[in-house]
């Protein structure tokens, strides 16, 4: 109710589920403020002192304030004897300094002007929150990428270890192969300086060499005879593989005893010396 009168000085009526509050300071019979607050609402209330109005200040727990004002209106006595208002201003004690309604309105306008930039500030804060959200999203994506990179690094480290193990295995296999090849070469003899000719019979060449150095050779003692590529000699060297190492060693010993052997000694043209040697390895050859 925005305006009502009580016939006598009676307290305002009570309403169910509402708390009653009314101003205690009155300037005449016709002024005052009455407030009914729901019992479900948390709030605080106090009376403010004005020289020309009654006021109740309600503060809600949600940082909201409600100012209830009722101006005091001076009046004169009616002809029927009822008092509409009095010109008196009663003196009441109050913990608050007395202020006018105009002062309150000016103060409210000042507060309103102060709050004008508030929407922009709120918008700025919201923009900052959005930017922070984007940064958090970017950090989350970056964190996921870092985790993927860490997984790949771990996989690469594991692959590196596997490569090292494979390298060690290859080295071991090469060593084993080299050792086996070395054993296989123990029965081989290399002959250098024998001129090449078309449709040559290498066994006949080796047999002639054997006859010349007094070590007769039969096919049963030979595993294979072949020429192999050479970067330095125009005539490819001849490799003779004997059935056993003893036959090879006897053949080389006979060649060393003969010392100087030339192509003309086996019916070929040429003045260069023929060398017969044992094959120890690819890099080490014992020459006669």
Structural notes for this entry:
- With 288 residues, the chain is an alpha+beta fold.
- The protein folds into three domains: 18-103, no CATH class; 117-183; 186-287, 2-Layer Sandwich (Alpha-Beta Plaits).
- The protein has helices spanning 101-114, 118-185, 202-212, 245-258, and strands spanning 18-22, 34-38, 43-49, 53-60, 65-71, 188-192, 222-227, 238-242, 275-279, 285-287.
- A five-stranded antiparallel β-sheet has the order 7-8-6-9-10, covered by helices on one side.
- Strand 3 and strand 4 form a beta hairpin.
- The protein starts with 17 loop residues before the first strand and ends with a strand.
So how many helices?
4
Beta percentage is 15-25%
Distance between the termini: 135 Å
Radius of gyration: 61 Å
Beta strand count: 10
Overall tally of domains: 3
What global shape is seen?
rod-shaped
SSE string, helices as H and strands as E = EEEEEHHEHEEHEE
Mean pLDDT: 80
> What CATH first level of the largest domain would be assigned?
Alpha Beta
Largest sheet: 5 strands, antiparallel
| Residue share in helix | 25-40%
Helix-strand makeup class:
alpha+beta
């Amino acid at each position: 109710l925005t305006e009502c009168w009580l016939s006598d000085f009676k307290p305002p009526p009570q309403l169910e589920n509402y708390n009653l509050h009314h101003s205690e300071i009155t300037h005449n019979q016709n002024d005052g403020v009455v407030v009914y607050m729901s019992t479900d609402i948390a709030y605080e209330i106090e009376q403010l002192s004005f020289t020309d109005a009654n006021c109740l200040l309600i503060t809600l727990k949600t940082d909201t304030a409600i100012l209830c004002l009722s101006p005091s209106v001076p009046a004169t006595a009616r002809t029927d004897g009822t008092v509409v208002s009095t010109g008196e201003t009663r003196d009441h004690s109050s913990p608050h300094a007395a202020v006018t309604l105009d002062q309150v309105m000016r103060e409210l306008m000042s507060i309103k002007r102060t709050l004008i930039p508030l929407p922009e500030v709120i918008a700025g804060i919201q923009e900052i929150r959005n930017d922070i959200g984007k940064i958090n999203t970017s950090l989350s994506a970056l964190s996921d990428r870092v985790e993927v990179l860490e997984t790949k690094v771990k996989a690469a480290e594991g692959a590196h270890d596997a490569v090292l193990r494979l390298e060690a295995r290859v080295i071991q296999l090469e060593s084993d192969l080299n050792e086996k090849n070395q054993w296989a070469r123990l029965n081989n003899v290399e002959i250098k300086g024998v001129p090449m000719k078309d449709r040559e019979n290498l066994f006949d060449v080796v047999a002639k060499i054997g006859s010349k150095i007094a070590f007769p050779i039969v096919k049963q003692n030979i595993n294979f005879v072949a020429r192999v590529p050479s970067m330095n000699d125009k005539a490819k060297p001849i490799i003779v593989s004997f059935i056993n190492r003893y036959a090879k060693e006897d053949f080389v010993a006979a060649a060393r005893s003969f010392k100087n052997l030339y192509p003309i000694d086996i019916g070929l043209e040429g003045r260069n010396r023929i060398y017969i040697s044992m094959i120890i390895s690819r890099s080490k050859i014992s020459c006669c």
